[in-house]
Amino acid sequence: MKAHIERIRANLGDLGALADKTEKAERAILQRAEARLAEVSSLIECARPGVEAADDAGQQRYLDLVAERGLLQTVIAKAKQALA
User: Fold this and answer.
1) Interatomic CA distance for residues 73 and 18, integer angstroms
2) At what angle do helices 2-47 and 56-83 cross, to 10 degrees?
3) What is the per-residue pLDDT for 6?
4) Which of 8, 24, 35, 50 is 20 to 30 A removed from 59 (C-alpha atoms)?
């Protein structure tokens, strides 16, 4: 019986360590995603004026930035939910 209890305690310790690592990873993801979102938002604002007259590559770059912004917002929301 003691061996069983010791195994459970060891497993709980391992789970606690994994939970700490997971939380640190989520915080790092959140921090980096928020920083990138600020960069992407700035790039979008710079590209917005005249995007209609830009060449196909310029318009595609703008659309790619808008899509990336949406993905970053999703990542941020999920990270915040995981940390709540």
Assistant:
1) 26
2) 150
3) 84
4) 35
C-beta of residue 51 within 8 angstroms of C-beta of residue 59: yes
Task: Please report, as a single letter, which amino acid is at residue 8.
Answer: I
Retrieve residue 81's tokens. 């939910």
Say how far apart CA 30 and CA 78 lie, in whole Å. Answer: 9
**CB-based contacts of 69-78 (< 8 A; 24+ apart in sequence):** 69/37, 69/40, 69/41, 69/44, 72/33, 72/36, 72/37, 72/40, 73/37, 75/29, 75/33, 76/30, 76/33, 76/34, 76/37
Which residue in 69, 4, 84 sits closest to 33, CA to CA?
A: 69
Pair of tokens at residue 49: 């004026």
List per-block mean pLDDT (blocks of 10 residues) for the chain, which spans 84 residues.
82 84 96 98 94 93 97 97 93
